Q: What sequence folds into this?
């Protein structure tokens, strides 16, 4: 169930649906005093299929061998990752839910509001956990309200600048560096654009989807802007937001150096075919580029005043309180073990994902993946620039739709950045208030 295009799934299921399901709960009490040697059975929904599921099943078997008193009932949990949230909600109502489940990061606040999650804040303070080795965005995602920590990072990614060497060479333009500013980026995009050959310097989604929205967040953050105010209302219709969107508008409308993609998928195909010079995307693109034989390079995003912040879409292993202290203890121990570098090399790295921890970058296992997918190491190091996390509030879906629609219109020459963001903020606030 690995998402082949990108890892930005959001859902319209509201927190109220999860909280409301608690009214039907009836449950028994499990062990109330910890006995680490007691026999326990853990239910683990992985959200994976095929090779990914096989890898995790093998790791579960290894954990059982290390801890004979622990039995792990491991399965994908649902026919698709997207269905896990509804299945969890139904399980809360019937008091039958797993100890551990894969979850998109966008679900974190909704899961926490169910009052079923396990708070592991105290446990992760143990230096042996190495909590600080996870990126700031990953840590923020599993602490959605800034209070309890409800699980472990499961998958990390980010968007980096991918450039087509063939297009750059044909235009006689120097390749990007990790010190580039957005002004240098814009200048290069103009030079790479050739209307006669239908070649563009850059590409941007105008579908109005989350692809449109999340590509905008690094621009906002680098200018010092925020997505939400402290009171939970939309903050992006600020001077910083206007400046960020106006920059993109100038590239798309004035320079005409941006391919505006209505589909979210065609720009990658055109890049692979040497028709687009630069795109901002993530590790999921590298396999297709290598398969196509595209000559490409990868570097960090251009920066604003030296700030090269990116956006990440971390997914999580959510832990749930089953009212049994022995189960809760071993749920934590299993995820602590799984996310340790030794096991993450066998899971995320072996499967072609970015490593969860920076300490894995120099390992032979990850370097072998880099040899197969050049640029993967740059993207792994770029996790250090994933400072902010996208909000995990239930209203984010409506917020994303509101600003995504307005960004799309502005980049197509309809309206101003200031008016568009004000209109988006008004709609976003309605969604956030629901």
A:
């Amino acid at each position: 169930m690995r998402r082949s295009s990108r890892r930005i799934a959001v859902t319209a299921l509201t927190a109220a649906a999860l909280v409301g399901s608690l009214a039907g709960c009836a449950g028994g009490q499990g062990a109330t005093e910890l006995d680490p040697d007691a026999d326990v059975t853990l239910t683990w929904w992985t959200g994976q299929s095929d090779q990914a599921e096989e890898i995790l099943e093998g790791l579960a078997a290894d954990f059982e061998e290390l801890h004979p008193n622990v039995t792990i009932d491991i399965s994908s949990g649902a026919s698709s990752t997207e269905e896990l949230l509804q299945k969890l909600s139904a399980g809360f109502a019937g008091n039958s839910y797993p100890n551990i489940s894969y979850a998109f990061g966008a679900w974190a606040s909704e899961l926490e509001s169910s009052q079923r999650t396990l708070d592991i804040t105290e446990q992760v303070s143990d230096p042996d956990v190495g909590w600080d080795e996870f990126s700031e965005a990953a840590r923020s995602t599993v602490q959605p309200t800034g209070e309890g920590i409800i699980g472990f990072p499961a998958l990390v990614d980010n968007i980096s600048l991918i450039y087509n060497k063939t297009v750059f060479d044909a235009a006689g333009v120097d390749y990007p560096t990790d010190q580039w500013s957005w002004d240098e980026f814009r200048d290069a995009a103009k030079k790479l654009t050739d209307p006669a050959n239908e070649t563009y310097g850059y590409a941007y989604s105008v579908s109005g989807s989350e692809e449109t929205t999340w590509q905008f967040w690094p621009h906002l953050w680098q200018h010092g802007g925020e997505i939400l105010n402290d009171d939970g209302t939309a903050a992006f219709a600020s001077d910083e937001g206007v400046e960020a969107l106006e920059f993109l508008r100038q590239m798309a409308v004035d320079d005409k150096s941006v391919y505006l993609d209505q589909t979210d998928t065609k720009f990658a195909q055109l890049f692979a075919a040497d028709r687009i010079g630069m795109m901002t995307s993530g590790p999921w693109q590298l396999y297709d580029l290598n398969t196509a034989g595209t000559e490409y390079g990868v570097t960090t995003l251009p920066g604003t005043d030296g700030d090269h912040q990116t956006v990440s879409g971390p997914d999580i292993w959510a832990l749930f309180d089953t009212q049994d202290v022995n189960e809760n203890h071993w749920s934590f121990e299993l995820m602590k073990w799984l996310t340790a570098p030794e096991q993450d090399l066998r899971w995320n790295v072996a499967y072609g994902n970015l490593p969860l921890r920076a300490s894995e970058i120099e390992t032979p296992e990850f370097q072998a993946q880099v040899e197969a997918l050049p640029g993967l190491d740059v993207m792994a190091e770029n996790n250090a620039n994933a400072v902010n996390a996208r909000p995990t509030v239930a209203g984010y879906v409506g917020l994303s739709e509101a600003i995504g629609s307005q960004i799309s219109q502005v980049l197509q020459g309809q309206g101003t950045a200031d008016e568009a963001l004000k209109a988006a903020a008004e709609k976003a606030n309605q969604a956030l208030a629901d």
